[in-house]
Amino acid sequence: MNIINNLTNPIKVLVAGIGGASLGTEIIKTLICANSYKIYGCDISPYAFGHYVSDMEKTILIQSNNYVQSVISICNEEGIKYVIPGGEQPLMLLNLNRNLLELNGIILVANSPEIIGMCSDKRKTFQVLSELGVEVPWTVGVTDIKQVKDLIYPCIIKPSKGSGGSSDVYLASNKEEATLYINYLMINKKEIIVQEYVTHADGEFTVGVLSLSNGELVGSIGLKRLLNSKLSVLFNSEAGIISSGYTQGLIDDFPDIRSTAEKISKLINSRGPINIQGRIKKGKFVPFEINPRFSASTHLRTMAGFNEIDVLLKYMEFGQVSMPKQIKYGYYLRSFNEAFVAKGDIISDQMDKTILRNSEL
């Protein structure tokens, strides 16, 4: 069968989680670029930006306490086969209920349950990588505040679980700061890891690596992050810089960096999309974060010629791999988009089970 690249036979896809300036809205933009999909969306917030994107086929407001069943109901009612998580929480919820989705003929467009499970625990992830011979920053779990006296400063303090988009990630330059951040995370019931701070002097990179469900590598794309923009920096002090969840910068070949990322993907047996962030230490690419999902920079990659979501969906649907186009190297910059929504057009709780069409917005 030939791969369909137009809207004569569009593939129906649901993006679960469509909040503004999020992974979900970047996935929507990427799907729009492919011109091959009817795009549906759902979110627990009536103010999610994706509800008001004109290219959406339909969107629906759902309740968090019935999230998975609501997703299944939408797919059954609309004949949707593929669901793409639009954020870390939807990914975790839907992955835990993968068997239920499959029983309803629904395919979760994500990495394998094993990879998602491993990467959801950062301490476990870096332990596994180290055992596989991958050079990683030193990483330790913290369960007692007294451990601050044994740490090497500056260091990164963050939750072992969660922290996507650099949420709750802190840079401590001394014991006093470490005590403050660790206490805060402990009060909020977080499992904590402390990680070596690798300087950004030689660059910070994010690399998307796409593999198929059989483990075959499709390709990778690397971006060197710009860290001189407020949008891309979460924290900046004399001790160092923490990047934010908003990636922008230079997409180029970066063969050594991509090769390392591809090796990591192969070693952990990745079976789908994976995003690897790292910095350069003594001339080598050293990962400090791995997320087993599409990245929020996926639309930048699409602009460059590598539409990883389209490639994976076409493989799932037709069993064929449409190789990425020649990559257009250069700088890819970001900002925010705005939208006006009249007061009467905001989705209300009473409209919970009502699917909205664009013509009704």
From TrEMBL:
<dbReference type="Pfam" id="PF02655">
    <property type="entry name" value="ATP-grasp_3"/>
</dbReference>
<dbReference type="GO" id="GO:0009432">
    <property type="term" value="P:SOS response"/>
</dbReference>
<dbReference type="GO" id="GO:0005737">
    <property type="term" value="C:cytoplasm"/>
</dbReference>
<feature type="domain" description="ATP-grasp">
    <location>
        <begin position="126"/>
        <end position="317"/>
    </location>
</feature>
<dbReference type="InterPro" id="IPR003806">
    <property type="entry name" value="ATP-grasp_PylC-type"/>
</dbReference>
<keyword id="KW-0067">ATP-binding</keyword>
<dbReference type="GO" id="GO:0046872">
    <property type="term" value="F:metal ion binding"/>
</dbReference>
<dbReference type="GO" id="GO:0005524">
    <property type="term" value="F:ATP binding"/>
</dbReference>
<protein>
    <submittedName>
        <fullName>ATP-grasp domain-containing protein</fullName>
    </submittedName>
</protein>
<dbReference type="Pfam" id="PF21360">
    <property type="entry name" value="PylC-like_N"/>
</dbReference>
<dbReference type="GO" id="GO:0018169">
    <property type="term" value="F:ribosomal S6-glutamic acid ligase activity"/>
</dbReference>
<dbReference type="InterPro" id="IPR048764">
    <property type="entry name" value="PylC_N"/>
</dbReference>
<dbReference type="InterPro" id="IPR013815">
    <property type="entry name" value="ATP_grasp_subdomain_1"/>
</dbReference>
<keyword id="KW-0547">Nucleotide-binding</keyword>
<dbReference type="InterPro" id="IPR011761">
    <property type="entry name" value="ATP-grasp"/>
</dbReference>
